[in-house]
Amino acid sequence: MRIRDDALVGRYVIRLDGARCDGHGICALRCPERICLDEWGFAKVDPRPVSTGRALARARRAVAACPAGALGLVAPEGATRGTT
Amino acid sequence: MSLPLLALDDLACGSRRAPPAFGIAGEAVTRLLAGPAASAGAEPYAAHVARLGPPGHRRQSPEELRSAVGESGLLGRGGGEFPLSRKLDLAVMSPGDSIVVVNASEGEPASRKDATLLELRPHLVLDGADAVAAAVGATEIVVYLHRGRSATDRNVVRALIERDRVPGAGATRVRLVDAPDRYVAGEASAVVRFMSGGAPAPRRTSLPPAASGVGGRPTVVSNAETYAHVALIARYGAAWFATAGSTGSPGSTLLTLAGDVAAPGTVVESLGPTTIGSILSGPGGLAHPPVAVLIGGYSGSWVDGGVAWATPLDRHALANAGVRLGCGLVAVLGTGACGIAETARLLRWLAGESAGQCGPCAFGLPAIADLAGMLADGRARRSDVRELRRLAASVRGRGACGHPTGVAELVESALDTFAVELRRHLGGRACASAGAGFPLPQPASTWPRS
Predict the structure, then answer these.
(1) Is residue A81 part of a domain?
(2) Which of B145, B176, B226, B302 is least enclosed by beta carbons within 10 angstroms?
């Protein structure tokens, strides 16, 4: 059974791997609600959860469109990450 | 059979021994730096055990060790301030043979605390690494440090040879890995990537190193000082550990004093509660508040000297004020120096230390350094300062590591702290800066790629 998007709204954020982003810029066209480009053309992601069904669909398209595989839709980052 | 009189705490802890009276007579009480004077060099293993007692982890189960670290509230001392117990729990939960990495690369140019610790008390750090290895069932310990060109390296090698001769002292195999001379090479994900055969550059991973690190194995990466604290927690317990420091950040903290102080590179241990002023005005220290201090490292925060003087030296309190104590660097701006010029100098170096992996860092940091350079030369206008602030805000929080964010903090805190100097520079006047400034290593020529 396919889970309806409505149930997932507000539960995902777009995650960007800055080291993979090559500045193709397609993501910002697909999901302007959460992604814009900086002055050098690299993606800049709004860290807030994707809040509407429409935005979630667009976010999915942005993730799928990235030629560098730099984007992902993930649950907001847990408390398990750390650096020394 | 009659029991000796014991406190409840002693009964609960079984064979835990009482901590010795730390500190040298007539000097401030210390923990990690207690014992023989610095001039005596590295403390030999026999003297170390005679002074502190045998390593505490040998009479505790892994569960007991992990819960002691958890109750202690110990936060990593490398700059990330991440609770060590969370890394241990993750490593235990994750599949594969764990590795324990003692990060002693100390890439922060003016910081000397890890080097000092390994030069004077190598067995404290190695005991801590053994304890963490026992706590997570690790099969290997790696000491990540600059090899072959320091007293630190020599003393660690000597300490390992000593431990080899003591039955049970080094139960876990220890390997030394040569850390590259790069600022970002000490970041945990860079350490893991380098040890897995890649470039010594940070990377974003879906799982933290403690869950999936070197070759996919659970890897506990923490700073050398963190392990030294573990060695004492394993001996004397979490309650004892928390009698120093504050509730938000328990335990003592090593600090490196740099810049315009009597002996730059001096390492002091703060047991809190204290102020930055009382640390700086210690023996051979400053009589008056300086113009400004840089706290937490070269990508840390400038704080007005008068404000800093009265500010509590406590990770938690500082974090509430937007300042990270980071690696514990407290660098004093010289009386003849200009904060704007010094910041521009640091920014140029920091831009060169970008691994060049992420766009905002590779493009943003040189642009920021250019604008700051113009400002320092008296060639900038108000609009350039606005642009500098905008760029700093733009790179904040981006990229695969904290490097751009650290640079943004340096820029913003400089513009806030040096308002008077800023006006002078905007008036096109020559910079009054004098003195050598904070030490900067030679920039590396190219980045190792993989």
Answers:
(1) no
(2) B176
| Each residue's pLDDT tens digit, A38-48 | 999 999 999 99
Mean pLDDT (chain B) is 89
Residues from chain B contacting residue A40 (CB–CB below 8 Å): 359-360, 363-364
- C-alpha to C-alpha distances, B117 to B36, B124, B142, B153, B268, nearest whole angstrom: 13, 8, 17, 12, 11
Buried b (16+ CB within 10 A) or exposed e, B352-380: bbbbbbbbbbbbbbebbbbbbbbbbeeeb
Residue A84 in any domain: the answer is no
Please state the domain count of chain A.
1
The CATH number of residue A55's host domain is 3.30.70.20
Which residue of chain B comes nearest to A44, CA vs CA? Answer: B398
Which residue positions in chain B have pLDDT lower than 50? 1-15, 23-27, 450
ipTM: 0.80
Classify residue A17: in a domain, yes or no: yes
Of the candidates A30, A35, A33, the one whose C-alpha atom is nearest the C-alpha of residue A16 is: A35
Candidates B100, B363, B370: best to mutate against A (most CBs of A within 10 A) is B363
Q: How far is CA B55 from CA B17, B170, B317, in A?
A: 11, 11, 33
* Residue whose tokens read 């963490």: B132
Mutate to test the interface with A, among B74, B77, B82, B108 (most CBs of A within 10 A): B82
- Domain residues for the domain of A29 are 5-74
Q: What is the mean pLDDT of residues A53-68?
A: 95
CB B260 within 8 A of CB B335: yes
Global pTM?
0.89
Q: Which residue of A has its CA nearest to B398?
A: A18
Would A83 be classed as within a structural domain?
Answer: no
Mark yes or no for CB contact B360/A40 under 8 Å: yes
Q: Nearest CA of chain A to the CA of B419: how many Å?
A: 28
Q: Which helix (H) or strand (E) holds B257?
A: strand B253-259
Strands A13-16 and A71-74: antiparallel
Residues belonging to chain A with any Cβ–Cβ distance to chain B shorter than 8 Å? 17-19, 21-23, 38-42, 44, 47, 74, 79-84
Nearest to A42 among B76, B222, B359 (CB): B359
Q: How many other C-beta atoms are found inside a 10 Å radius of the C-beta of residue B227?
A: 30
